[in-house]
Write a structure and sequence with these properties.
Number of strands: 12
Oligomer: single chain
Strand order of the largest sheet: 3-6-7-8-9-10
Number of domains: 1
CATH topology: tt1808, chain A
Order of helices and strands: HHEEHEEEEEHEEEEE
CATH class: Alpha Beta
CATH superfamily: tt1808, chain A
Structural class: alpha+beta
Length: 198
């Protein structure tokens, strides 16, 4: 990749296999951080847990439809083009042909790693807040499980996040229990790298 600015269309023209490990920030294409097996597994487990909660919410007759994704481009703004790939995103349903964008997102989550701490805590947090994504979670992990979940929320439509709570697995079996954006409970056992098959 050259060090010159790109348009959103030029970024999308890149081969999908190459784009998987890239993001575009202020028009410049940047590599994503290295992601360990544990990092990816916890992201997948969190996505499945959020999906289960979303399906339960939709079954209550709520008119909102949700879905989850991992490591997909979320367009934050087009000029200059900036798109991040959250480890996990809960978003309102969109047709398959439509680009996932910040206005569709309800929760974005990043799994912290040695390579990503500064990017996730500073740069991505700022970008997601500026784009108006209501909820941002940071998950710390060890080799076998998630250890903590930090939750942040916007107090206005855009801007800086406010820390609204941190849970640690030593505090009990419940990792997250929320009413916003809808009733949601996730257990720590749901976020283990190798969950029990019993």
């Amino acid at each position: 990749m050259t060090a010159s600015a790109h348009t959103w269309e030029q970024y999308l023209d890149l081969d999908e296999a190459i784009r998987r490990d890239l993001e575009i920030v202020d028009g410049f294409i940047v590599p994503r951080e290295q992601r360990s097996r544990e990092h990816q597994k916890v992201g997948t487990r969190l996505s499945l847990a959020l999906e289960g909660a979303a399906v339960a919410e939709m079954r209550t007759g709520n008119d909102s439809c949700y879905e989850t994704n991992t490591e997909v481009d979320v367009l934050l703004w087009e000029v200059p083009p900036t798109a991040r790939k959250p480890d996990v995103v809960l978003h309102r349903y969109i047709p398959g042909c439509e680009q996932l964008a910040a206005e569709h997102c309800v929760i974005v989550a990043e799994v912290l790693s040695t390579w990503s701490v500064r990017r996730d805590r500073v740069h991505k947090m700022s970008d997601y807040g500026d784009a108006g994504i209501p909820h941002y979670w940071l998950i710390s992990v060890d080799k076998v499980r998630a250890l903590t979940i930090e939750r942040y929320a916007l107090s206005g439509r855009k801007g800086r996040y406010t820390h609204i709570g941190t849970t640690h697995r030593d505090m009990g079996p419940v990792a997250v229990s929320l009413t916003d954006p809808f009733p949601l409970e996730i257990l720590w056992q749901d976020l283990e790298v190798a969950p029990s098959v019993v």
